[in-house]
Each structure stands twice: as C-alpha cells, then as structure tokens.
Write a structure and sequence with these properties.
Blueprint (H helix, E strand, L loop, with lengths): L14 E2 L2 E2 L15 E5 L9 H9 L4 E3 L5 H14 L2 E4 L2 H5 L1 H8 L5 E5 L18 H14 L4 E3 L1 E2 L6 H4 L4 H10 L7 E3 L4 E3 L10 E3 L3 H15 L3 E6 L11 H13 L2 E7 L30 H21 L3 E7 L16 E6 L4 E8 L2 E8 L6 E7 L6 E2 L6 E2 L4 E6 L4 E7 L18 E4 L8 E6 L2 E5 L5 E6 L8 E4 L8 E6 L2 E5 L5 E6 L8 E4 L8 E6 L2 E5 L5 E6 L8 E4 L8 E6 L2 E5 L5 E6 L8 E4 L8 E6 L2 E5 L5 E6 L7
Parallel strand pairs: 3-4, 3-13, 4-5, 5-6, 6-7, 8-9, 9-12, 12-13
Antiparallel strand pairs: 1-2, 10-11, 14-16, 15-18, 16-17, 17-22, 18-21, 19-20, 19-22, 23-24, 24-25, 25-26, 27-28, 28-29, 29-30, 31-32, 32-33, 33-34, 35-36, 36-37, 37-38, 39-40, 40-41, 41-42
Helix pairs in contact: 1-2, 7-8, 9-10
C-alpha cells in the first residue's frame, strides 16, 4: 500500500500511520514502465535554453507542449529537449499552413512526440476542445499528417462535461463523445480537461473554502467507458496554475486529481500549466486570471508549486509499476456516490470494502500476471478509515516499495490520508474473477456467442428488436437490430461458417437468420407451429450452425434446408431446460439438460457423459459457452445482470456484470 501524505521531504522512507513514503533513491525505470507526464503550455520560445529544459526534466516531466512562433523555434526546442531526455508535442503556424513540409522536416527528430493542430488556416479550429462539428475537418487533417508520419501521434484534447450544447454542437455531452469516437480520428488517446477543485459552491464535497466539481467523476466514468470501447487510454489533467475559481493547489488537491485519474486508467497525467500564461488574449486561453504556476510569467521559479509538482511526479513514477500499461477492469465508489458513478461491488478475492467519511474510488486493474485493487480516499481534507476483507485462501500483497507486504488473516485495516491511495495485488491465477458493468438488472434474456471470431464466447442481452453484444470484460461491442419488437425468442449461431455468431429470431416454425449488421440471410422452416423451444448447434462439425427443436425428451436436429437429420432422446419428459454444446472439443454439438444446479451432458447417441454441479438450486437460467477458447463448452448461469461462468469441473472462473450500452 502507498498512503502518501506528508508535505515535508517527499523522498524520505517511513511507515507512519499505515502509510508508506517514497524512497529518495531513484531506481532506473524503463521508458515503457513510466507514466507519461505532460507539461501543458511549457517553456516559451524566448526562454528556451538548456537550463530551462533541465529544470523541466528535473521536475519530473516526460513530455512538453507549447505553441511555438515558428519552425526555427520548434527546431531549437527539439534539440534542447533531446539533450535532457524530454519529448515534445510541437505546434507552429507552419504546421497548419504547410503540413507536408513541416512534418517532413521534424518527423525523424528523436525528441518528437507528436503534433498539436493549432492554429488552422481559418483561425477557428483547434485540436484543443473542438466542437463536434469540427471533428470531420480535424479527422481529415489528422489523417493527412499520419499519411506523412505514422510514427508520431496527433494530439487532440476534448471539451469537459459541463459545457453547453452550443459548445458541443450536440444535444448533450454523451452525444459529443460518441460523435468523436465515430469520427475515427487517428489519435492514440482520449484526452479531456476538467479541473475539479473549485472555490466552494454547491457540490457533493464541501470542505472549508473548496469543493469538487460534481461533473468530474461523471466525466471520468464516460471516458473510462469510451476507453474500453476504443482501446485508447485516457489522458487526464491535474491543475497546477490557479485561475478563475480554481484555487492555488496543495499536495492533497494534486493527489486527489492524480490518484483518481490513475484509478480510472489514465496513462498520461497532464498539468495545466507549467509556465504561468502571460497574455489573456492568447486564443488558447481566451481570458485572464492565471497566477502562481510552477514557473511565473517572468520565468521565476515559484518554488512552492514547482516543488509540489516535482513531489507529485516522483510519486506518480513510484506507482508506475502498478499503473503503466495496466487495464482497469472495473471502477466503483463507496460512501456518497458522485453523480454519474456506480457503487463498488466486490468480487473474489475481495469480499468487502468498508470506508467511513466521504468514501473512496475503488477500481480493479490487470497488468501482466497480476491483478490489483486500488482504493483512493475521495476527500482531500480528511482521513478515512479503510477495512478490506479477502477470501481466506487468497494470497494478497500490499503494494510497498521496496518489498510488498503479505496481507495476513484475510483482512487489512488502515487510516487513509486525505487523497491517499492504497494498492493491493495478487496473481491472476489465484483470483481470475473479474467484474465489469454491462446491461441492467431488468434484463431477462441472455445471449451467448463468439462475436469477434476469437473462439471465446462472450455475453450479450436481447431487448427486442436489439441484440446487445458484449466482450469478455462486459462492454458492448455492437448493437444489432434484427427482427421486430414483437419477437420474443432470439437465436444465435454461426450461419455461414465464418467463426462469428450472428443474430436470428424464432417464429414457429420458422428460423429467421440474420447477418452481423441485421440483414436477413434466410428463413428456414423446421418443426411445427406448435413447437416452442428452438435449439441451435453444429450437428455435423461443418462449422455452420443449424436449427432444431426440443420436445422433451427428444432433441430434433435439422439441416440448413430444414430437413430432419436425426432425433436424439436425452433426459426425461419432465425436463424443461435443454442445453446444447460441444462438450468434448470434437467440433460437433451435443444435447444436455439443466436441472438446477446440475448440468447433465450427453453424447450424440443420447448417453450421459457427465453431470456438472454449478451454481445454486435457485438458479433458473443456464448459459453455455466456450469461455476460454479451448474448443470445449462450459456451463454458466445468468442472474441478471450477472453472468457466472464455470468450467467443466464446476468451478467459477469468471463473473461478468452485464453492462450499459456504450460505443465502439
């Protein structure tokens, strides 16, 4: 655990009140192990020198951005940055006026990180906080730059939640984000700027003199969902320069922003700003009121803020072994829920998290062969008491430097300092359960299929006429409209042998088969109008699924033309829940029946292969799928909105909470 909080020497190693403070000795860290730290509006052209860039690097910044006055200024800055190991996001008038020659000039420079598209020729469009109406033009220019240089990124920063529909050019903020995702800009990240600490007004947190903007966690939540759908990491901000109603920061304010951003999966922490802006008429700033950044307007180092940022950046890199290149699987909150967030729900090996006070951000992350639980105190003014309980059989460590500490007795208690962070870790093989959100508790019709050709079955839900298709983490891959709102019996199968399952609907005696975008492929008549229970399977190992009907205890199997192949007797006449699966990896599906909590598996001749006990006697909805890509189908049960996935030994291997529709 790292529970960091003293404002004194940031490099002293001490265990105080359950916390651990960082070591002065810096261990060498590979580039891909670092968290990227970006200085926004960095060293102005007039101050560019080796000493200034060394000062920037010593503050812990890995990347720098400022708007340069010319190509020659960019060239000089790149050379200086290279000498101290800092990368630059470049911008100058020539980048928009003559992108081809400008990019060709700089694309091979070792210090180049990427390009910031400001200003454009018309003087109206910027890659900072663009309107949705600007996305097509921004995408076109981004593709132009990428066509010249595909080794360096284009940087785009979006508006935060809380702006107006006129600023978004959409009806609401979620539509704004969706429009950005659908524009398919060739950018590697999702960046937005919202500075959450404000002078006190209304809000869920009301410490003396300050509050947390109620839109902030909602904004992080939306970007976390979009990050999962696009595969692009979040880049998020911390405020280092006071302005308007945003106060002069202290270490707890910085930690709240940084730790919460990391808990939501941020892979870059951006500081606004490094150099205190001087010119209120600057189009990037538009208004005045900036003061006391790490470096003042006249170039004087503001020691108190500079050292706070330097301390924070050191703490960030000590957390990099946990967060750099990690995937945040789920996020929740304890205590008073911020707007737009959801409560934390524990899954193995975590059985309970208890906090007092305002509460905490709690997330689960995965990196390499390790899983992590991250807890962040959401109150930047007060301590909270934290108690975490784990499965008795789990091997869980507290993340400490230099040596992790074993959690003994299945529980850990500590006092977490204002904005403090606590990290637990365990090997994936000890606790392979994951928890994510998808769908709603009112859903009643699960669907299972291989939507992406990966051989692994994934969850989904059917809300006529929509098929909501999820991934292994429970996020929506796609939504396909097929059939009518009056349909009630979905069917899923690989109709063409492509390795991807598609939707269909059953209207006795017709099986209506669709493709991946909701077009009708064909309708097969099989069985009788009085049949009520369709079954779908690859009866002959051809790779194509075919129709069938269940009339207990008979499984009537058909071909692609609606002819009967065979009828298999399996189970009893009183059975009501047929299951179909490839139990042995032969490529042929076989029958089975579900009698809670037992899954009775049969062979192609109706003989019992085995019975697997999984779930509870109170379960009513079985699911079958190849959860691990082994070629063998395994049991599961659906308890809306949860998908409990098991193996053929009846052990739970994963829990999915079926989640809300998001966008790809």
């Amino acid at each position: 655990m790292i529970s960091i909080g003293l404002e004194g020497n940031p490099y002293t190693a001490n265990a105080v009140g359950g916390g651990l403070f960082l070591f002065k000795e810096e261990r060498p860290m590979a580039i891909d192990e670092r968290i990227q730290i970006l200085a926004w509006l960095s060293i102005p052209d007039a101050y560019a020198s080796l000493e200034r860039f060394r000062e920037l690097a010593e503050c812990g910044f890995t990347t720098s951005f400022t708007v340069s006055s010319s190509e020659s200024a960019v060239a000089a800055a790149l050379d200086l940055a290279q000498s101290v190991g800092v990368k630059l996001i470049i911008s100058c008038p020539e980048l928009s006026a003559d992108p081809e020659n400008t990019v060709n000039r700089f694309k091979s420079h070792p210090a180049l990180a990427g390009y910031f598209l400001f200003p454009f020729k018309d003087g109206e469009l910027s890659s900072d906080e663009p309107h949705s109406s600007d996305f097509p033009k921004l995408a076109a220019l981004s593709r132009t730059l990428q066509g010249i240089d595909d080794k360096h990124y284009v940087y785009v920063n979006l508006l935060p939640e809380g702006a107006t529909p006129d600023q978004y050019s959409t009806a609401n903020y979620q539509d704004y984000i969706e429009a950005y995702v659908k524009a398919h800009l060739p950018v590697p990240s999702l960046s937005f700027d919202l500075y959450p600490i404000q002078n006190a007004k209304d809000g869920y947190c009301l410490p003396p003199g300050c509050r947390v903007n109620e839109d902030w966690y909602s904004n992080l939540e939306l970007f976390w969902l979009a990050s999962h759908q696009t595969g692009k990491p979040i880049w998020a901000f911390a405020l280092s320069t006071a302005h308007y109603d945003h106060p002069y920061p202290d270490i707890h304010m910085l930690r709240l922003q940084v730790h919460s951003n990391l808990a939501y999966g941020a892979q870059c922490i951006q500081y606004f700003t490094y150099w205190t802006p001087a010119n209120p008429s600057n189009p990037l700033l538009r208004d005045g009121g900036f003061f006391a950044g790490p470096i003042d307007v006249d170039g004087t180092q503001n020691g108190s803020v500079y050292n706070l940022v330097r301390q924070m950046n050191s703490e960030i890199q000590h957390l990099a072994p946990v967060f750099a290149n990690a995937k945040v699987l789920s996020v929740g909150h304890t205590g008073v829920l911020p707007r737009g967030t959801r409560p934390f729900r524990p899954t193995s090996p975590v059985t309970s998290i208890q906090t007092d006070g305002l509460g905490a951000v709690v997330s689960r992350a995965s990196k390499g062969d390790q899983c992590s639980l991250i807890v962040v105190n959401r109150d930047f003014t007060a301590l909270i008491h934290l108690k975490v309980l784990f499965d008795d059989t789990s091997i869980v460590h507290l993340y400490k430097l230099p040596t992790p500490e074993l959690v003994v007795g299945g529980q850990y208690e500590t006092t977490l300092e204002p904005s403090g962070i606590c990290v637990f870790s365990w090997p994936k093989k000890m606790a392979p359960l994951e928890f994510v959100q998808f769908g709603e508790a009112y859903d009643r019709v699960p669907i299972i299929g291989v939507w992406d050709g990966s051989r692994r079955s994934k969850p989904g839900v059917y809300r006529p006429p929509f098929f909501h298709l999820g991934d292994e983490d429970g996020f929506t891959l796609n939504i396909v409209q097929f059939g009518e709102a009056t349909d009630s019996v979905p069917i899923i199968g690989d109709w063409d042998g492509s390795g991807r399952d598609k939707p269909g609907v059953y209207r006795p005696p017709f099986f209506h088969l669709g493709d991946e975008i909701g077009r009708t492929i064909k309708a097969i008549k099989f069985g009788e109008a009085y049949d009520k229970v369709p079954i779908i399977g690859d009866w002959d190992g051809s790779g194509r699924d075919k129709p069938g009907v269940y009339r207990p205890p008979f499984f009537h199997l058909g071909d692609e033309d609606g002819r009967t192949i065979k009828a298999i007797k399996f189970g009893e006449a009183y059975d009501k829940a047929p299951i179909i699966g490839d139990w042995d990896g032969s490529g042929r599906d076989k029958p089975g029946v579900y009698r809670p909590p037992f899954f009775h598996l049969g062979d192609e001749d109706g003989r019992t292969i085995k019975a697997i006990q999984f779930g509870e006697a109170t379960d009513t909805i079985p699911i079958i799928g190849d959860w691990d890509g082994s070629g063998k189908d395994q049991p599961g049960v659906y308890r809306p909105p949860y998908f409990f996935l098991g193996n053929q030994e009846g052990r739970t291997i994963q829990i999915l909470r079926c989640g809300e529709s998001t966008y790809r």
